[in-house]
Here is the input.
Amino acid sequence: MQSPLFFGISSISYVVAMMVYITYLAFRKNSIGVTATAVTIFGFACQTLAIGLRWIEFHDTFGMSWLRSIPLTNLYESLIFFVWCLILGYLIVEFKFKNRSFGAFVTPVAALALLFINLSGMSTEIEPLVPALQSNWLLAHVMMSFISYSTFALSFSTALMYLIITTDKKSEASYIFWTAALGIFGAVLIAMGIDFIVNFKAMSGMKPEMFIHSYLFKSTFLDANGAVRLVSYLAALGLVLFVWRFGSSLKRVIGNFNLSAEMLDEITYKSIAVGFPIFTLGGLIFGAIWADQAWGVYWSWDPKETWSLITWLVYAFYLHARLLRGWRGHKISVVAVFGFVAVIFTYLGVNLLLSGLHSYGSMK
Amino acid sequence: MEQKSLSDRIWKFFSSVKLAIVVFSLIALTSIVGTIIEQQAPMETNMKVLGRIVGESAAPAVYSVLNALGFMNMYRSWWFLSLLALFALNLLVCSIERFPAIWRIARTPIKPLPPDTFKSMQMKAELSLGEKPDLAREKAIAAMKSIGFNASLSGEEGGGWQLYSQKTPWSRFGIYMAHFSIIIILAGAVLGKFLGFEAFMNIPEGSGYSVAISTGGVSQSVEAERDTYMQAIDASNGDYAQAAQSLNMPVKDLKTQLLKAGIIPLGFTVKCLEFDVDYYPNTDMPKAYKSHLQVIDGGQVVVDQWIGVNKPLRYKGVTFYQSSYGPMGNYANGIAMLTLKSATGQTQDVSLGLGQSATIPGTKTVVKVGDFTPALAFDDSQRPYTYSKMMVNPAIRLDVTGPSGSYSEWVLQRFPESWRLTDGNIAQFNHFWGVQYTGLQTRKDPGVALVYLGCIALALGLFMAFFMSHRRLWVRGIPEKGGTRLMVAGSASKNKPTLERQIEKMISLLKEGGR
Here is the structure.
């Protein structure tokens, strides 16, 4: 099938789009901006086509109904769909707020995620569905969950940018918070990159889930050698301190994007206000109905369910604190950042670190 | 007086948003612990988990502290349930507290705005039209209609007038509905806990039971007596009186004993005719687990249906889910279900036990079931062996005697190419029957309807609250020299920019017409 080809084209498009967006930031010429948007839309169209082709391939190979053939059943496919939602969300924001500054950030994330999978040679084979996943709820539940995850991702990045451009003093709690958050985020990404490089050979043909299970942080924070562990933690601490020391330069960079603090705050709120009802319906309610159909319990406090409830509570916290207690500024942005940490844990952490019904073992 | 202020304070405490925020945080934070500690797991499992987090040496101490606090089964612990109750109480008090205000604002018909308030409204506009007030009024009514507002009219002193209209005032109830729905969901959960049950049934192929075993644990002493009760209840098809008689005990005692032993009489019988696993072609990936079930009530077969994962059976408020399966232990009693086909196309279905034989229709060839294995594999020297106790690759050895001589051949259920015998006849191996049980999760939950209702209300409420807004619009006309002065004011419960854009559109329509 042609789907890998179109995934490749879309990754390359996103890389090109990133470069054009950066050029646009430097020169601020409208024609460059329009080009950047056009390249992104082209990449998005290719990705849409690729997902569609994979859907058809799934349908033809396993003879399942269309609703059950949606390619959203493993880490690889969900990552691709997440990227798709992210780009779609970005294009909507670009259109609504008439601001292209985020493009330089969103497109590299999308390109990296797609290229990472393509280059690693990890298994991207389509896999048959285990019986528990064969349900018409799959489509609605997983799709809506990911749409809400994307809106939460957007709110996370705007909340973080809000904190970056509105803090000055190195001793300020909010400044320490965002530099630490960014530093830890960077340290985790670098550690994953090291796992990736060190174990490059072991990876080919392996499913991403297996790779993460066997190698995640095993070359750094969880290395068998105590000295390596110590160095890893010190390096992570060093990175956090580095971000803390030089955070003001990042502020200057983002300060050039024509983003007002009010606008960032508003995007954070709006994307949570859109994501929350979708998450409640698609993630929690449809998930409960499906669990009721498949396992005979609509709520069993398994780790995935519990973490999605935690996520829901954090965003409920955000909405109540903002709308009823009048929280604004730094305080509320910190809540939005924590909300997305809960999202990441619900999406990845539970499957990779904790056990539960959702690991879809055999039947029980 | 003092007492009243105390009750006021208590009421205020339970209706506060602060309490809600604190309860959110407490539920979220304690839940995190519950996802790390495996719930209701054996001690060793969590010792290992804790060992990895706090170190081997500290693990026992941490374990005993967490255990004493109920974290090993925390979602059923008194303090977590109290948190949920507090959450519900908070919601309930808030709902009662806010209802009158929401009712007032949503149900009171919109009234003309006092003329001096126009200036102080957040969303406002002014313009002059060349028409006389009466004509201007008609134009304003049409313009309001074009953006979806049906205007009401009231006259003002000095020949002026005011038009006013509102849209979706009931969207104000959205937030209210979303909050109240959570109380409904929690009520449904409580109802299910008290009036329903969670149980399981392991039914061997060919058998039927009229009782289910509760999933909650029971003491070992009663577990020993369980079989006696089960057999008695089963023999009488769930009839207490009859069962009690056969056990020589009063009906009342039997009921309490059953409850203690965790046995739940269904009042009807569920029979498993067949259990099967389907595989994706050429793989060991299971595609479907399915059971052919019959419900027998009052001596009649009332339901006859295949169930599978995601396809449960419901009868009289009890739901049966396909949840597990396994071997009964003795494969020697099994029966091979075969379809024999001659090379010339004649077919016949046969059921053969081990050692039994049948003739392929229209031929003189006799096949005998010589051996069975649940999981056939061949070692390096092509000798057959069994690699699992589970039926993952069932196979029978057919001993064939015919005109072309005698020989033995392995026939594998999952590989149709192995069904063709050397002499060209076909022994289609359909199923090896009577050696497995199907595991059914059995549940009665009268609260589930309430939970679903609450879920629908929650979804509708949230969509109303976040995606709709109560919009109000006032247009006032005052006669002035050479025409009419129009004052516009609007208010929206949220998403104000949308209404602002609508007002702009209306004004441009009014101006256009004026030229």
Notes: Residues 78-107 of chain B form the longest helix (30 residues). DSSP finds twelve helices and 22 strands in chain B. The radius of gyration of chain B is 37 Å.
